[in-house]
Amino acid sequence: MYSMKRIFLLLLTSVFIISCNKGGAARAGKPGSKTKGELVSHYNSKSFVSLRPYGMVPIPAGSFVMGMADQDFTNTPEKAPLKTVTVSSFFMDETEITNAEYRIFVTYVKDSIARTLLAEAAGDGGSDGNGTGIADYAYLAKKAGNDATPYQQFLEDKGGRDGYNESKRLDWSVPLTYNTSAYPDAKYAEVMESMYLPPAKRINNERIIDASKLKYAYEWEDVETAIKDKGRGTKYIKKESIAVYPDTTVWVKDFNYAYNEPLYDGYFWRKAYDFYPVVGVTWDQARAYCNFKTKLKSDYNESLKKKKQKPMAFRLPTEAEWEYAAKGGIENATYPWGGPYLTDDRGCYLANFKPKRGNYIEDEKKGTYTYTAPVKSFQRNGYGLYDMAGNVAEWTESPYSNSTYQFSSTLNPYLSNQAYRDVKKSVRGGSWKDVSYLLMTGYRDWERKDSARSYIGFRTVQDIPEGTAKYRKKTN
Q1: Mean pLDDT estimate for the chain
Q2: pLDDT tens digit string along 339-386?
Q3: Ranges for the Sulfatase-modifying factor enzyme-like domain (predicted)?
Q4: Domain spanning 53-93+275-280+292-476 has what CATH number?
């Protein structure tokens, strides 16, 4: 009897220790005097809070009926049967990615390539590092010399390692210039000139960066195949090298008998179009942008004195996530604002689309646009998302087939094994050139992943861990 009471007290003590620390992230504690030799997990008092990324809104988890519940005027076999599915919570860009945002990506790729070429030409460096000569652009490990860390010395001796090479980190603190009158020396000029089109390919001798050289290299793991093979390793690492500059010729190629040359000449790079959605971007380019966005945040976290945890990756939304977010919390919403009408009580259109046959812009007072519109030109939906109907259609991560809904899961449906391999990708939302029927939240469309169009853009999402206690707005 005495032993039974003792066991009960010990169990009660263990429960008390655990319950008093409930709600925090567990970390392993070293057995010692504080735990009296028992194996006890130590918990932080603070629970995990997911920080909302800038320009994104939280989409709460929930269930909805996925598919085209409204009348299908096209009677196409791609109309999928209705299916109730559940999606987890995630953050989503409140607008489509704009020209200004995508230009940051292109500029980063351009600068990193230029700095890499300069670092290779700089050799061991040996200058003061303020941009007065090409030697200032040497790799950080070369500049460190005797001050190099043991790890840098090891990598230098071994010639680096496969993939990312710590010994070839670029020094981004040294100013970079593309102004020919500010080139520090002839060697610098030689390297920078290699970034431009050769004189024989120039029009009116205009110096233009060779866009074909602007390639973003990254790696990702084919987890699904690895799990199927019951293995892990480098053979499941996919290496990508994607030319990132958008195809500006889409404005002419998509409309052979229309005068769209002004958009071809300046839609992507003119300041007037900064807050217009980027177009002419393929599915692969959109995925590369997601990787860059993740890298940008990850590099920032690593730069802090008190390093933060690795951020959740940014990615394209699945087809189910996109449709769920588009409905804005309204059950069976025909359009993101509910429906079924296309105008508000003042007669103003609720999205940017083609109102009538031949009418791309019916009346400026009604809020219609000839082509794309600046983001946030129309009212947001119940989740705070703009342009989930019209303006530009949007890439999703999901492959496209007329049987997708039938064999996909009812919990976070996503055909991951087919996503990378299938050429056809699901495109959602309709665009500025489409009639209202194509703007319905349940309407499905597709495009080849290597195609770029003047009416297709994208937005990104980021997972919210299931254990998150609450969302917090980004303060910086």
Answers
A1: 83
A2: 888 888 888 899 999 887 666 676 665 667 899 999 999 999 999 999
A3: 55-461
A4: 3.90.1580.10
Please check whether residue 428 is in contact with residue 326, taking contact to mean a CB–CB distance below 8 angstroms. Answer: yes
Three-state SS for 428-442 is ECCCCCCCHHHHCCC
CA angle centred on 206, ends 200 and 209, rounded to 5°: 85
CA distances from 177 to 105, 131, 133, 140, 171 (A): 18, 9, 12, 19, 14
The sign one gets for the Cα dihedral 235, 236, 238, 239 is negative
State the Rg of the chain over Cα: 27
Place of tokens 């646009």: 369
Using alpha carbons, select from 405, 402, 377 the residue that is nearest to residue 389. 377
User: Given the structure tokens 């309709």, which residue do they identify?
Assistant: 430
Q: Which residues, 6+ apart, have CB-to-CB distance to 406 below 8 Å?
A: 80, 81
Calculate helix-pair angle for 283-303, 99-122, nearest 10 degrees: 70
Domain ranges of the chain: 2-43, 53-93+275-280+292-476, 100-214+245-274+281-291
Model's pTM, two decimal places?
A: 0.86
Q: Binning pLDDT at 50, 70 and 90, where does residue 14 land?
A: very low
- 214 with 110: CB under 8 angstroms? yes
Length of the chain, in residues: 476
Task: Judge whether 372 and 277 are in contact, CB under 8 Å.
Answer: yes
Q: Which alpha helices (H) appear in 160-260, and where do they start and end?
A: 186-193, 223-229, 250-253
Reported as a pLDDT band with limits 50, 70 and 90, residue 133 is confident
Q: What is the average per-residue pLDDT within 282-295?
A: 96
In whole angstroms, what is the distance from residue 114 CA to residue 117 CA? 5
Instruction: Give the burial string for 437-457 (b: 16+ CB within 10 Å, else e).
Output: ebbbbbbbbbbebeebbbbbb
CA distance 437 to 357: 13
- Per-residue pLDDT tens for 78-93? 556 788 999 999 999 9
Distance CA 200, CA 204 (A): 10
Q: Give the residue among 457, 452, 458 at the shortest CA–CA distance from 254.
A: 452
**Cβ atoms 246, 451 nearer than 8 A:** no
For 283, residues 6+ apart whose C-beta sits below 8 A from its C-beta are 316, 395, 425, 447, 449, 450
For residue 334, what are the contacts with CB-CB under 8 A and spacing of at least 6?
69, 70, 340, 440, 441
Distances in Å between the Cα of 69 and the Cα atoms of 80, 191, 350, 425, 449 are 10, 59, 21, 22, 27
> How many whole angstroms separate alpha carbon 284 and alpha carbon 292?
12
